[in-house]
Amino acid sequence: MSDFPKKVEFHEEGVREGFQIEPVTYPRAQRVALLDALSETGLAQIQVGSLVNPRKVPQMADTLELFAEIKKNPKVRYTLLWLNESGYQKSRAVQGAFNHAPLMYYLTDAFAMRNNNRTAADMRAEQEVWLDRYLADGAMVQKVYVMTAWGCNLGGPVSLETVTDAFKHAIGLFRARKLPIPPLYLADTMGWASPEEVKRRVGAVRELAPEARIGLHLHDTRGLGGANVYAALSMGVTLFDASVAGLGGCPFAGHKARQTSGNICTEDMVFLCHELGIETGIDLEKLIEASRMAEDIIGRPLMGRVMHSGSLKAFREGKAADSACVSVP
Amino acid sequence: MSDFPKKVEFHEEGVREGFQIEPVTYPRAQRVALLDALSETGLAQIQVGSLVNPRKVPQMADTLELFAEIKKNPKVRYTLLWLNESGYQKSRAVQGAFNHAPLMYYLTDAFAMRNNNRTAADMRAEQEVWLDRYLADGAMVQKVYVMTAWGCNLGGPVSLETVTDAFKHAIGLFRARKLPIPPLYLADTMGWASPEEVKRRVGAVRELAPEARIGLHLHDTRGLGGANVYAALSMGVTLFDASVAGLGGCPFAGHKARQTSGNICTEDMVFLCHELGIETGIDLEKLIEASRMAEDIIGRPLMGRVMHSGSLKAFREGKAADSACVSVP
């Protein structure tokens, strides 16, 4: 029925997305163990942490030490996130990590001000400076991120044209330099996306640069994460950011909202892909083990589903014990 | 793109699905309050409880008292679940409730034995007896349920042919009596469904009786609930069982699995429908209030998402306060 891709790639961001929002800083040894477990699952890319202001995000203050201590699986790209000059310089000092240079577009002033203390227009203008900077430094620009690509809690609804304008700007920068267009990422930073709007916006971005891969950074804030991924797969999207165990989200907002605005859950979405016959290169059973390690570290039930129910593998092989709880119907 | 229905109907089952699996019995007054709140949301049908063996399911022992105490909104159909003669007789004694007479098909002996202490074939044969019984009693048969329509933890994979065979049997009973075919429900009792298999099986069942409505009873056991609903909507399915706040699931199974195999979450799926432009007749904001009441009663965070993040209404109207926690990207 749909034109699903043969293979998709998940970029694991749980250790950053999950641990940066916890009120406490977990022992580094636990994060090392989790990252090492994730490295053995077949994940192609794993984000280790962010290089941001340690006064604002103290949970990420030891990101460079963390990066140094993990086992480096040569099959995995390890990435770091930064937002400014200082973070970039730290990242450059770490072998491998600065090859994850992104361009980042903000669509609402409110969110740009909050994350970067500058307007969306100022942030946009800076992207050309960043691009040339990266090129001069020999860094590979691996993605263009457009934030709040469906809407913004701070700035309200975001139109399709606002999204395509940002991508046009980015694409123009690469074309003017006769560079290939890197993967184009739409980020649903605050959980506004719904499946038909995923299709519509992915389709519109693809028209701008049919040769580019498209990626999504989705949050399961309002329960549509899985439906959005399914819609994106039907549009041929092959790159997804995700968080093991559904890590991430906000421990402070709203009605007992702890962790409910987390990223899409890596192992649940890997399960979805496998059920659709789409390859991921990931050993789901190993990833489930890693998600359970994440839950043991965090110390409360996390939002992932397959990590609690188990995959269907053992049931299909007739090896599962009675799963205990079932009810009519 | 897809041929979505104009309107769908949700059947709320949280008070049965959710409370029957808790290790304690909650005070009836709390369940009355929750049912009364749900009655004011625009839900067309609400299941009050089940009439089953109180030794096996003590949490449902006071279902008839509960039924008697709730305010009856004349716009709502209130239903009771039963599995045997004794339950049926109790249901008959309650005005209105016995018009929810279902036929129930089991596809694996293991699950049939567990729920009913009889084989799947014996259960199938009994359905004709039940149908004639219902007709003689003047009860309306409102649905045909086929359990474990994608697979069974106890009995393993279930083929498409096994599913269509069961529906053929049911459809034959109605056609032989020149009766209209009631809604045909596929139940994913244990969370084996995936979106393409939803499309495939819904399509196959529709071919058997194009004039019948199709309904789904889905569990979000493995994180695909929303994607499965979206797939079903694209096939024109208009009837969904669901549980407010994602109530339901198993407090005992697996790795800290409490509540993780719950039903699809009513308010999250109502939100999905509204985002797709599909009417539900439900006031989402009122339903979110009811879901928060459910969480307050149960006393621990429940699995619903919109109940924690809020809908997009206030954000779209520019009335929302800063949502506090957002992060890059």
What string, H for helix and E for strand, traces the elements of chain A in order? Answer: EHHEHEHEHHEEEHEHEHEHHHH
* Chain pair sharing the greatest interface: A-B, 86 and 87 residues
End-to-end span of chain A in angstroms? Answer: 29 Å
Shape category of chain A: globular
Q: In percent terms, what proportion of residues of chain A is strand? A: 5-15%
Q: Which CATH-level-2 architecture of chain A?
A: Alpha-Beta Barrel
- Assign a percent range to the helix content of chain A: 40-55%
> What is Rg of chain A?
19 Å
Under CATH, the homologous superfamily of chain A reads: Aldolase class I
Number of helices of chain A: 13
Unreliably modeled segments of chain A: 251-259
Q: Which assembly state applies to the chains in this document?
A: homodimer
Number of strands of chain A: 10
For the record, what CATH class of chain A applies? Alpha Beta
Q: Can you summarize the main beta sheet of chain A? A: 8 strands, parallel
Enter the CATH topology name of chain A. TIM Barrel
How would you write the strand order of the largest sheet of chain A?
A: 3-2-1-10-9-8-5-4
Number of domains of chain A: 1
Category by helix and strand content of chain A: alpha/beta
